[in-house]
Specification:
The protein has 76 residues and is α+β, with helices and mostly antiparallel strands. Helices cover 16% and strands 36% of the residues. It has one domain. The chain has 2 helices and 4 strands. The protein starts with 7 loop residues before the first strand and ends in an 8-residue tail after the last helix.
């Protein structure tokens, strides 16, 4: 049986609240799925995605939720 190799490539940087630090990445897998990968500090709120992603891609990675990480009103 041949196993399918799953591979991903970073397509965007997650920018921290200081508006310049890269705190994570958005990966697109060869399966078509998107996933977030954080730097060594783990999940943290973000201010932007560069380059910007389309609305459907932002929904898939829960962009609004990523902006609220760590905030009391986030529900997380």
């Amino acid at each position: 049986m041949h196993e399918v190799e799953v591979e991903g490539v970073a397509i965007a940087n997650l920018i921290g609240m200081d508006e310049r630090s890269v705190v994570g990445w958005v990966y697109r897998w060869n399966t078509g799925a998107l996933a977030v990968r954080w730097d060594v500090n783990g999940p943290q709120p973000i201010s932007a995605i560069r380059p910007d992603l389309g609305d459907a891609e932002k929904r898939e990675i829960d962009f609004d939720g990523l902006k609220r990480i760590g905030r009391r009103d986030s529900g997380h």
